[in-house]
Amino acid sequence: MKFDTKVVRAGISPDPSTGAIVPPIYQSATYVLEEVGKDKGYDYTRASNPTREILENNLASLDGGKYGICFSSGMAAVDSVMKILKAGDHVVCSDDVYGGVSRMYNNLIVNYNISFSYVNSSDPQKVEDAILDNTRLIWIETPTNPLLKVTDLDAVGKIAKKHGILYGVDSTFSTPSLLRPLEYGADITMHSTTKYLSGHNQIIGGVLITNNDELNEKFKFIQKSVGAVPSPFDCWLTLLGIKTLSLRMQRHCENAQAIAQFLEDHPQVEKVTYPGLPSHPQYDIAKTQMEGYSGMISMELKGGIPAGISLMNSLNLCSLAESLGAVETMITHPATMTHADVPKDERLARGLTDGLVRLSVGIEDKLDIIEDLSQALE
Ligand code: PLP
């Protein structure tokens, strides 16, 4: 199947008992055995659930993977990757990861004697230079949240292979519609399904995708042992959302490109970062490895924090909200919202200035979004 067919069809067949075209929500905690030792493939929903399994197969197929393992949030998926490490291990990580990821690493995971080096992974040499004898994992986010730094996945994949280190990619901002990290040598692709995959601000969820049998066994074991699993209803809502992923991503990309250009030309805007603008430092890499530049834009306003606050408080259509990747256009102030838990010194060192504003461009008519931004910038 081609990608646009997979989003509608992969892993989904008519329900065997009724022919229902939409998979049923198997809202059951447990399953009755026919006799001792004989079940129908399911015994307890923490371990497996038919609705979840359909979603897992669909997501695996979209990313070109053999296995998908779903979790109750993107963070639960990230945590499950941490659980395959051991005390004494070291991780090389992109320096501009989502604030919740660095919060987990720096405040929780370090307590288990796992250490982290943060590097600007847009320069693959910096990734290689940070590798130590005990490095077990390279964790890349591309494009990053919120600075939209792009990493050359092929170059980092070769480094990971050369050193025999596991390679994981948080591909939440790209989605499998625009980028499939397993094709570039990643062992693990991770998504917060809360974002573009479900697409309508209707659920919180996460997924890990891999082709590696051993990793799949480990992640299934962690999923069953810890139980951070999505509800059958959330899986069903995610499946419904995915059916329009290709159409939505086309529109997100088209709208974001137009809005990034509008902002870049606006006299009140100091700087616009969007991987689809030739001014983006990794524009050439983004152009080679992505099939579109997604819907995320970050910008710095002239006039710093007061200008940023004034803009956000003056918008009528764009919603001032934490999340991203949904049909509604949303605007965020990372310093006080998504990255508020990153200490100020560290935040500024990472380039997350107080005046930075992040825009998640939705699928409304782009002229309405531009009109709203325009009146708010005035
Ligand atoms: N990874 C990225 C890039 C994110 O933007 C987020 C959330 O914003 C997460 C992971 C965490 O996902 P969730 O909020 O579903 O736990």
Cα-atom Rg, whole angstroms? 21 Å
Major sheet size, sense and barrel closure: 7 strands, mixed
How many E strands?
A: 12
Morphology call: globular
Tally the helices: what do you get? 14
Considering DSSP H and I runs of 4 or more, what fraction of the residues is helical? 25-40%
**Ligands, deduplicated:** pyridoxal-5'-phosphate
Output the structural class: alpha/beta
Strand order of the largest sheet: 1-7-6-5-4-2-3
Distance between the termini: 48 Å
**Taking all residues together, what is the mean pLDDT?**
96
| Strand percent estimate | 15-25%
Order of helices and strands: HHEHEHEHEHEHEEHHHEHEHEEHEH
Low-confidence stretches are: none
- What is the subunit organization of this protein? single chain
Q: What does this 3D model show about the protein?
A:
The protein is α/β, with parallel strands linked by helices and 378 residues long. 37% of the residues lie in helices and 15% in strands. The longest helix has 20 residues, at 245-264. The protein starts with a helix and ends with a helix. The mean pLDDT is 96. Residues 73-75, 98, 100-101, 141, 145, 170, 172-173, 192, 194, 204, 206 line the site of pyridoxal-5'-phosphate.
